[in-house]
Write a structure and sequence with these properties.
It is a single chain. The chain has 378 residues and is mainly alpha-helical. Among the domains are: 2-89, no CATH class; 300-376, Serine Threonine Protein Phosphatase 5, Tetratricopeptide repeat (Alpha Horseshoe). It has helices at residues 16-21, 59-72, 79-89, 93-106, 110-123, 128-147, 151-169, 176-188, 192-205, 212-230, 236-246, 250-263, 268-280, 284-296, 302-315, 318-331, 336-348, 352-365, 370-376, and strands at residues 2-5, 9-12, 41-44. Strands 1-2-3 form a 3-stranded antiparallel sheet. Helix 4 (93-106) runs parallel beside helix 6 (128-147) and helix 13 runs parallel beside helix 15 (302-315). The termini are far apart.
Length: 378
């Protein structure tokens, strides 16, 4: 036995018992896997262990060792052999691991979800489903950070998600679902030019809808393209205004979005950006008026109402703010930013007990939330 890695991996000669256990696992003759006694077997040690107890050697330890090798050293000369070995023993590992990563993502355990995806990237290099899920997990983590009010951290994570989507969009042959999801990613970022390109490409790649789900997705993509075109959201001025406000240059953003609204006064998205810029510079009443206009024109989503509530709180209209926040929470019951704002509102109303309840909920969803942490450190 020899140790070749500092990451709790040991390599050993193939035990005779393994050679008999693996016989007959492959059902198809052309997929038959043959143990190569010349290639050492990597084994992952238990946490804290420094030596391998052969009596406790298990398939889980062997497979974990192989997965770790292909994760850390995908170009290792024995990596192709280890991949075949793992797939022979666990033919459904792709589906199992993807489901596990999605479950971890739903539970906001993003680090573990990405660890699982890294394992799959080692086993299935440049596989569309794996690359797609990495982009999705990074986007979900960015969304969570943004909801927690951690905008700088969210921007960093959005950049990582953007880079991950670029890998997906560059796949050959093209991966249609990658373009569909990337379209929504760019919509979230108000990059409507990129969103339009992604949805156009998706429609071209999926000309024949094979299932009802495919047909519904094509219809949704077409509807979004029509909305972008009818509201002129691909106007460069709109994107420039958004970028200015996002970077903290609200005054420049105001000038740009007003230019946009002069040409397109019925576009609710423009009024949202206007309200956002005004809120950033503390013009609460003007910001509230802009958000109300956005709602009037069809933009009554949780983001708009949450922003309106912030302006109303600063204007002293606490009952109006509560109404908007409660409407937002019905739409997104786990949105940390909305729950935190309800906590702030409770404090303004002098209800410390209610505020504590909201902030405890925030910390359950996002333990690093700065507003909730500050409350309990008072």
């Amino acid at each position: 036995m020899q140790t070749r890695s500092p990451s709790r991996i040991v390599f050993l000669s193939v035990p005779e018992s393994l050679r008999t256990q693996i016989e007959g696992i492959s059902k198809e003759p052309d997929q038959e896997f043959v143990i190569d006694p010349a290639i050492p077997i990597p084994v992952a040690l238990a946490p804290g262990a420094t030596n391998l107890d052969m009596e406790n050697l298990s398939w889980e330890m062997i497979l974990s060792g192989m997965i770790r090798v292909v994760m850390d050293n995908p170009d290792d000369e024995d990596a192709p052999y280890y991949r075949r070995f793992v797939l022979t023993v666990k033919p459904d590992i792709l589906t199992e691991f993807v489901q596990a990563a999605i479950m971890k993502t739903k539970n906001r355990d993003y680090d573990m979800a990405l660890e699982i995806i890294s394992a799959l990237e080692g086993l299935f290099p440049r596989t569309p489903e794996v690359l797609f899920n990495r982009a999705f997990i990074l986007e979900e983590r960015a969304n969570a950070l943004e909801q927690a009010g951690l905008e700088a951290e969210a921007d960093t994570e959005y950049d990582a998600a953007y880079n991950a989507y670029q890998y997906v969009l560059a796949l050959e042959p093209p991966f249609p679902d990658g373009f569909f999801n990337a379209g929504f990613f760019f919509m979230k970022r108000r990059n409507f030019n990129h969103a339009r390109e992604c949805f156009h490409t998706y429609l071209n790649l999926s000309e024949e809808a094979e299932t009802a789900e495919d047909a519904a997705k094509r219809e949704q993509a077409q509807r979004i393209l029509e909305e972008i075109a009818s509201h002129n959201l691909d106007d460069p001025t709109f994107r420039e205004a958004y970028d200015y406000v996002r970077r903290g240059e609200a005054e420049h953003g105001l000038a740009k979005i007003r230019d946009f609204l002069e040409q397109h006064p019925e576009v609710w998205n423009g009024w949202f950006i206007l309200g956002w810029a005004l809120r950033k510079i503390g013009r609460w009443e003007d910001g509230a008026a802009a958000f109300r206009k956005a709602i009037e024109l069809g933009g009554g989503n949780s983001d708009t109402r949450n922003e309106l509530a912030i302006c109303l709180m600063e204007c002293g209209d606490l009952s109006g703010a509560r109404k908007e926040l409660e409407a937002s929470l019905r739409e997104e019951p786990e949105n940390v930013k909305i729950i935190a704002n309800l906590g702030v509102l409770a404090l303004k109303n002098g209800d410390d007990h209610e505020a504590a309840g909201f902030f405890r909920t925030v910390l359950e969803l996002e333990p690093q939330d700065p507003v909730a942490q500050a409350y309990f450190k008072r």
